[in-house]
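Whiteboard transcription, Tuesday session. T.W. wrote the structure tokens on the left side:
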């Protein structure tokens, strides 16, 4: 894989200048960033105008599940643009119907009705609105270690520090501790203890908040940006039981974990749990055109049989986005992408990352499945002190910044959040590419090791 264009630093400088003059970037202090000017991308790689190529271990923002520029998806978008480029959501459109059918075929249980949005945050907004209207209750419970989006309710549901600047404490959200054995808030020593104590904590929270006030509990099936903490056996099933006991709607957020990322179509399949509502986005069409949605069970869908649902979006089920979804799902089926992701996780990434952990004192824990992995970087393996403090910035974050610079120098674009690096390549990453990424991580972790005690 080589760049498809000759290096052109002058063109890159022009792109960068226009960006700096006019583009306002998300989650950034505008005067402190230096965004890379990207010249192109294909498969698992992208490159800049200077001819530097990077293996993308971020999948964009964990959404290019079939890599960049897959020819079948690009062709489907082009074909749909020539046939019907756009149409309002109130009408039945063939590609919209087909996308909904293909998604519903893969969702668990009776999650057979699909409400389309433009992305994951809007999916969460509409899922919790449905839950509130269905139950007649207002309160929402979500985990501290979580990310659910940046729109008004979604950011309040979010547990990580990105919530702080926008949290008005008036959105009816209560946070609780979900299980995370490596940094257990419950002083647990086994997965069974962590699961049982986390469930008791959740039920205690419900009791003190008032079960009759709670509309929904929302959880990322496997939390993504917050650290890829696979829930221990029995936990999600226990949450399902608690929701049934108190008449609470159970929402699983599969925006990041869905569509092959964990080696299953949806991460809930690992736990044999069916939620009442499921949110999705990202991998549904590999991010080629913005698309998200809510998969709705029969009971909640029936609430709106005679009662209008008070929500909608101008671009809901946009034909170009749906065409990309149809093509992506067919590619994933034909090319056995989900099975391949499971294989890469079990036989390449998992063993490779664990081997790195054995050799590098900076790696405290490896966790994940499929192509969804996290390395928890620490100053000391015994104390588990994070390599950088929680929500570190500036000089306090220097060790992680040095690690990231080393990875990029070795041709790897890393996913870094706080004291972690995530290995989240495309679901169809090849064995050779995954091993290339492991070798680059090996070199970069040597830099992180310099900051251990």
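and on the right, the sequence the group agreed on:
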């Amino acid at each position: 894989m080589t760049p498809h264009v000759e290096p052109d630093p002058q063109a890159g400088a022009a792109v960068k200048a226009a960006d700096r003059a006019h583009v306002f970037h998300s989650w950034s202090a505008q005067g402190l960033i230096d965004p890379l000017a990207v010249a192109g991308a294909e498969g698992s790689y992208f490159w800049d105008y200077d001819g530097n190529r990077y293996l993308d271990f971020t999948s964009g923002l964990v959404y290019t599940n079939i890599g960049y520029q897959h020819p079948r998806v690009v062709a489907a978008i082009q074909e749909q643009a020539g046939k019907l480029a756009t149409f309002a959501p109130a009408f039945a459109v063939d590609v919209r119907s087909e996308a909904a059918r293909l998604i519903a075929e893969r969702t668990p249980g009776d999650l057979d009705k699909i409400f389309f949005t433009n992305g994951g945050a809007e999916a969460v907004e509409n899922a919790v609105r449905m839950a509130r209207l269905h139950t007649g209750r207002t309160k929402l419970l979500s985990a501290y270690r979580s990310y659910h989006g940046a729109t008004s309710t979604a950011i309040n549901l979010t547990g990580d520090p990105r919530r702080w600047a926008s949290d008005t404490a008036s959105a009816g959200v209560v946070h609780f501790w979900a299980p995370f054995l490596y940094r257990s808030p419950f002083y647990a020593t086994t997965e069974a203890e962590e699961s049982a104590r986390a469930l008791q904590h959740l039920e205690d929270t419900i009791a003190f908040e008032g079960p009759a006030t709670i509309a929904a509990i929302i959880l990322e099936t496997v939390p993504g940006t917050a650290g890829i903490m696979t829930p221990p056996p029995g936990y999600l099933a226990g949450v399902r039981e608690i929701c049934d006991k108190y008449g609470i709607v159970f929402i699983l957020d599969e925006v990041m974990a869905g569509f092959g990322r964990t080696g299953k179509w949806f991460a809930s399949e690992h736990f044999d749990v069916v939620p009442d509502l499921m949110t999705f986005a990202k991998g549904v069409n590999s991010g080629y055109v913005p698309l998200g949605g809510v998969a709705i069970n029969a009971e909640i869908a029936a609430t709106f049989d005679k009662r209008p649902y008070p929500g909608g979006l101008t671009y809901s089920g946009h034909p170009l986005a749906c065409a990309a979804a149809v093509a992506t799902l067919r590619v994933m089926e034909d090319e056995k992408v989900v099975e391949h992701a499971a294989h890469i996780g079990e036989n390449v990434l998992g063993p490779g990352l664990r081997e790195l952990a054995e050799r590098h004192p900076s790696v405290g824990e490896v966790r994940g499945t499929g192509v969804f992995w996290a390395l928890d970087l620490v100053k000391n393996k015994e104390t588990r002190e994070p390599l950088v403090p929680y929500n570190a910035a500036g000089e306090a974050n220097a060790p992680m910044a040095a690690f990231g610079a080393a990875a990029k120098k070795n041709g790897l674009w890393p996913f870094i959040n706080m004291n972690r690096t995530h290995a989240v390549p495309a679901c169809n990453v090849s064995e050779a590419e995954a091993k290339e990424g492991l070798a680059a991580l090996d070199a970069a972790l040597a830099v992180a090791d310099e900051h251990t005690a």
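Someone added at the bottom: The longest strand covers residues 372-380.
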